[in-house]
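Long-time lurker, first post. I've been practising inverse folding by hand and with some scripts of my own, and I keep getting stuck on stretches where the structure tokens seem ambiguous. Below is the full token string for one chain I'm working on. Before anyone asks, I'm not after the true native sequence, just a reasonable design that respects the backbone. If someone could post their per-position residues I'd love to compare against what I wrote down in my notebook.
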């Protein structure tokens, strides 16, 4: 749905309601699905890790949708 479609279909008060809902109960939509999938992945892996393995971090299992920014030229020159 585009922003223009959204403006036509939802009132300002309804938008405020959904913002408050999200603050109270967490994200809705794809972000929440990503978090839930990360939890499942993390707890699936947990029993198979070695005893000396470090703590699990949920962020390690979250999908990374954006590529890391390219290092600037100074950083590249320092590597050489």
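-- Answer (accepted) --
I ran through it position by position. Result:
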């Amino acid at each position: 749905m585009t922003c223009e479609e959204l403006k036509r279909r939802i009132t300002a008060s309804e938008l405020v309601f959904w913002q408050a809902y999200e603050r109270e109960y967490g994200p809705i939509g794809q972000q929440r699905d990503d978090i839930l999938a990360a939890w499942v992945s993390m707890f699936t892996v947990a029993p198979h890790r070695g005893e000396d393995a470090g703590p699990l971090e949920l962020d390690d299992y979250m999908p990374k949708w954006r590529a890391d920014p390219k290092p600037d030229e100074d950083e590249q020159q320092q590597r050489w």
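A couple of notes from the structure itself: DSSP finds four helices and no strands in the chain. Residues 30-45 form the longest helix (16 residues). Happy to go over any region you disagree with.
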